[in-house]
């Protein structure tokens, strides 16, 4: 079976690669037939959303494609999906500010500080009780370490409490099935639930997760480490929005701009800061003015921490510290370099190393108030380099302050090179890996004419003939996020919880918020073409269609019918010869009657046609 899967994956790689190169050649060949009305709708849904759901093509057709496009360009006019709101409701960290996240979901180091009396326990009763349980674990471990009997000490031993279990309840807890154990826990008050969960080892406790309601799941998650709850919520929230949001273009653009202004989740304090970074910095500005988005990212604690600018100080601004410490906290050029290379001008934008240094000097003193406690942006004038600076031919006079950085942002936001770089980046994401220069120039022109109005830049692109060029129809390979979200949407999956989907993203090569490099995840098709990733995609597709992904319910009844009907239902068009060949290759050798609809659906989701958008 594994060998068959590898052969099928190789076939898909060849099909996808040949399709991409064929489309490059098609531009110089006789024009392709224009897209039909339904094909235009399908193209818009594939490019401007995370993939169509059953009924979406008809829904867009009923209101008209032009009206749908304008609605997506004005997401606040679209009532949000109540199903999404219900799914997001239990994820309380998504509504907290950074300081609240630190207080309610402390790191192990913070819990240890509470045990040592160096930091106060939370004031909220339930949070305080939970942290006390974790603190008791720390104390048990310390005691075990001192005696040298760590292996013989039950670190999960329950603390003495008021709760008691009778023999029948103990039997359920020790030998019952997860639904029975969950029912027992739900019959208890919250503090007793914590006591019982604390008494369980990690394996038995995790087995309860799928059967538990959201509030009990939260308590189970906390025992894996409170900070993990914060990180799991932000990844789960992203997947839920991609699957359920009716403001699809806004979600696609939020993903695009997060990667454009990438921040790595697992770098220290950014584990707490990424939640508010995407929610308060990226999402509100994706269809606004570019300069506002640029300023918001520049002042974001998440960006300042990720690129170390919060520690960047000017020379001689701290004369009383030791030379070694001054070297450690001196001028840092990380943000100055990435600001020009990745955020605005582009690598060929005409700046020099001298410009990088001068820009870094302009941003000295842009820092964070107590970053490990969730503090916000702060400008420290005592750390600012007040000397004269020269950036891209502009002179910034000596004696300035925070305005030096603001001047740099203004210069960059209004640069024609920035207009071209941003336009090209958007065109790569939404049109093709090699967008026509005429389209990029047209978008850049609108960028300059509208003072960087991103809604108008998007409108210029969407209404351009290049966007609707038949050569671009299903020409780009989906990223793993696009693949997962579009597949769940295509089968109308009911996502109870998305933790397992988030784990699958790691296997597919796109762990969410965890791109270490400053570039963010790629928008180019060829960067996602490799055998390991496509094999993982095929495995995911088969598991999803056959209802084997925990937390996602798929109605198998919808896959009744012959293979052609199932293919059309998922692709919303007839399968290509490549896709049909891949599906038949997957079905080859199956016993009569074993070619179930779920298998056909899985092969269709893993086929070359579905891999493209």
What would you note in describing this structure?
The protein has 613 residues and is an all-alpha fold. It has helices at residues 2-26, 37-48, 56-63, 65-73, 82-88, 98-104, 108-115, 125-147, 167-175, 178-186, 190-199, 202-207, 214-222, 226-244, 248-260, 270-282, 290-298, 301-306, 323-328, 334-343, 353-362, 403-413, 416-430, 437-449, 454-462, 480-490, 499-508, 531-545, 563-571, 577-587, 597-605, 608-611, and strands at 366-368, 377-379, 389-391, 394-396, 494-495, 552-553. It contains 32 helices and six strands. Strands 1-2 form a two-stranded antiparallel ribbon. The protein is flat and about 80 Å long. Mean pLDDT is 89; it is low at 21-29 and 151-162.
Tally of contiguous helical segments: 32
Fraction in helix: 55-70%
User: Termini separation (Å)?
Assistant: 28 Å
- Kindly name the structural category: mainly alpha
- Any idea what the shape is? flat
Overall average residue pLDDT: 89
Radius of gyration: 27 Å
Order the strands across the largest sheet as they lie in space.
1-2
List the helices and strands and how they pair.
Layout: H1 2-26, H2 37-48, H3 56-63, H4 65-73, H5 82-88, H6 98-104, H7 108-115, H8 125-147, H9 167-175, H10 178-186, H11 190-199, H12 202-207, H13 214-222, H14 226-244, H15 248-260, H16 270-282, H17 290-298, H18 301-306, H19 323-328, H20 334-343, H21 353-362, E1 366-368, E2 377-379, E3 389-391, E4 394-396, H22 403-413, H23 416-430, H24 437-449, H25 454-462, H26 480-490, E5 494-495, H27 499-508, H28 531-545, E6 552-553, H29 563-571, H30 577-587, H31 597-605, H32 608-611
Antiparallel strand pairs: 1-2, 3-4, 5-6
Helix pairs in contact: 1-28, 1-30, 2-3, 3-4, 5-14, 6-16, 7-8, 8-11, 14-16, 14-26, 17-22, 20-21, 23-24, 24-25, 26-28, 28-31, 29-31, 30-31
